[in-house]
Design a protein that fits this description.
Butyryl-Coa Dehydrogenase, subunit A, domain 1; Butyryl-CoA Dehydrogenase, subunit A, domain 2; Butyryl-CoA Dehydrogenase, subunit A, domain 3; 8-stranded mixed beta sheet; 15% strand
Amino acid sequence: METPRPTETRAKAPTSAEDILARARAVAPLLRERSAEIELNRRLPDDVAQLLRETGVFRTGLSKDWGGPELTFAQQAEVIEALSYGDPAVGWCGMIGMDTWIYAGYLDEPVVKEMLENPDAITAGLIFPAGRAERVPGGYVVNGRWPFGSGITHADWVVGGCVVHSDGKPEPGPDGSPVNWRLIVARSEDFEKIDTWHTVGLAGSGSMDYQANDLFVPEERSFFFTNPHTSGPYAAPDAFLANVPGVPLGVARAAIDHVRELAANRIERATGLAWKDSYRVQIALGQAEMELSAARYAVYGSLDELWERLVSGTEPTPEQQVAVALARVNAFKTARSIVTRLSDLVGTGSIYQTSPLGRWLRDLHTMCQHILAQEQIVQSAGAYLLGGKPEAPFPLGLKG
């Protein structure tokens, strides 16, 4: 399907947090119907990508100064949660693709104006420095291959982390670090896509490898998170991570609701007892609700506190930074635990392709292998609170 012209998208897209969330919730049943197809194709079909674009999810980070709705961190996560309730891969692609306007806050005005021609532009790419940027007059010559290009099959812009070299040698970072790590931004068509995405879960995200071969990137299309050109919450180094926990929260909610629907008319074969009267089933569902509620309130409570702190212009406390990062990790772990136990509860009925539980479990298993759901984040949180050395400072919103 042809990508819509910017004027067409602008006319259709909602302009407020309430409208965007309403559209995300409205498309969820349609996405659920397409889940098997999405997983089988290992990417979002063009019409599904267009449907996602029309929800307005990709303009959620567009600031009011740029004519956008400027959703809070919690509102962004809630939109992703609603989409993930329909399909995890769609939620994941929405979560990645909406980073366009966070990244734009680090770019010069001429580049931002070019990007603003389509306020619903989608961005994909890996920020970690898997590429090499050789410094040349006016910019860089970039070579490299990056994994995990989620949503790259329908992206407008692509980023790639690079180590900057001068005269064939790595440059030291401006802060004295051993290397100068920068992100380059280029049009999607400037990269070669390599179909490597054959995975256990999140198959529909199309998170394939992509490659640059002697690609010239002007200096103004490069940035790093220590030098924002804007102020406020979106200028925080970890602003683009705020929406991440919406994906596992949405999947866990979908699984609980699915099993509740099954339980309404299910009878235990051995005893003839209705599931709604079964102590075993009641405990399983009650515990799932308890754990999801606690995880969800931790996510949204910590995001709201962080947003309010950043809006006031004051630095977040160590406890606030840690709370956001740990709530994110806990959302992934809790969602996987919930769906695992609900699959066990349903038993053999969950192993058939007609049951969404197997897909949700595969998707959550894959999500939990992401760096943002790893024990390294928990270690870093503890180290930061103790004044030690975090192994992964960046996911905590620390600049170094």
